[in-house]
Amino acid sequence: xxxxxxxKTSSNLALKLEQVSKNFGALTVLENLNLDxxxxxxxxxxxxxxxxxxxxxxxxxxxxxxxxGTVFYDDQIHKRLNGHARVMFQEARLLPWKRVLDNVxxxxxxxxxxxxxxxxQHVGLESKAQEWPSVLSGGQRQRVALARALVxxxxxxxxxxxxxxxxxxxxxxxxxxxxKIWLETGFTAILVTHDISEAVTxxxxxxxxxxxxxxxxxxxxxxxxxxxxxxKWIQLExxxxxxxxxxxxx
Amino acid sequence: xxxxxxxxxxxxxxxxxxxxxxxxxxxxxxxxxxxxxxxILPAPIDIVRAAINLTVSGELAxxxxxxxxxxxxxxxxxxxxxxxxxxxNGLFRIAERFLDTTVQMIRNVPHxxxxxxxxxxxxxxxxxxxxxxxxxxxxxIYANTYHGIKTTDPQLIEMGRVYGLNPWQLFSxxxxxxxxxxxxxxxRYSLGLMWLTLIVxxxxxxxxxxxxxAMNAREFMQTDVVVLAIMIYALLGKLADTxxxxxxxxxLQWHPGFRHx
Lengths: 250, 261
What we know:
The complex is a heterodimer of chains A (250) and B (261). Chain A has 250 residues and is of the alpha/beta class. Chain A has helices spanning 2-6, 53-61, 100-104, 113-122, 138-150, 168-185, 196-202, 231-246; strands at residues 15-24, 27-37, 42-46, 68-73, 76-77, 85-88, 156-160, 188-192, 205-210, 213-219. Chain A has one domain (2-84, 154-246): 3-Layer(aba) Sandwich (Rossmann fold). Chain A contains 8 helices and 10 strands. In chain A, the strands form 2 sheets. Chain A has a 6-stranded mixed β-sheet with strand order 6-7-8-3-9-10, with helices on both faces. The model of chain A is unreliable at 1-9 (pLDDT under 50). With 261 residues, chain B is mainly α. In chain B, 79% of the residues lie in helices and 0% in strands. The model of chain B has no long low-confidence stretch (mean pLDDT 87).
């Protein structure tokens, strides 16, 4: 399979957060957070809007710095943006003035066009390589954004609600695609989402954030691909959902 | 949005000329039946004749060349300064704080109000005219470049940083292309002001140019030459606008609003 050759297994990244806090003015968004993420695992972070999950992702990526505490990549202190992590945002954030293929090439040298094309093949969009992003559908744009992230062979992929704006069907397709690519390449993945069923479908471990603290941390020990009618799947989803709904809004 | 898509392209391209041609026919009829005195408005055929005479004598080409040269230099100098200053103030907050007040004050002085001063400084030579055109075209390009840079989507810049772009790549791949539609709007405004300034400048004191040709003709009551000069300005203006259209359709291919023009 060409995809296997393309996505060489690069070593995965171990992530650790130690006593991390972040404030915006008087508002404490994250408070003394400790988190240990195994290399190659798929972790989902869920919670109500404003619970600090996106802030947490920005701290992990290096886009923002914590006020106190430290982020470690493979036991090294991580301060600035670096090449190990790539982010998929809620919006695709494609450059409208670059054709699809050139968007995927962003930040690569010119010789790597072939790799970009392979990445597009991987998400099933090689036929759109020469189109402008404005003619693509929302789901296709997110697939291009995924290809753009994969081309860099990230050791850590951060997903900031990338499927939030898609329709239900496209969403399920994208979930399957992300799962497939993750299984093939084995990068460490952190998914921020407000959709609990998405978290239980994709992640090995679901972390519920509330009021800037970890409220729940459960392992999802289900065979893949996961089916939503599996009794344990239903039970887990309910357990997490009830926890979210029962915690008083902060 | 695109209603004329079923017609061949050359027909849709000609629709804009229907009204001007109709007006010229109306004008020809009006002068033919002497509803209009030829002192007020000469017949279209007289203007064609004037154009032929002036072309044969070489005077028309000489004057158009003189005007175009002034317009070109003014646009080049004023446009470059406006573009660079717009970039500078858009990219660096310190430059903006330092320079913006000055630029805003200068903007509110009508540049044509400087004509007396310009004549004192430069006399009636070329420099004064180029200077006025420079002033005229500077501001639209400055303001639109500045605005284009300032309104670049911050989410795209953030994305660029995450994907490892260095500051030059951020500028050349994200900020500048994002500002281009706005910069081209500025260029189009500038072209309008360029002709306006030139007409005024050339009617004051010159020895060549279309404006001077019109002023001379007025002395001798050659209404046909005056009208010819006005029509040449209209055509040059249309030409400049078409050039910007062409640029837009080439550079902004990616933009849904500019496609298939």
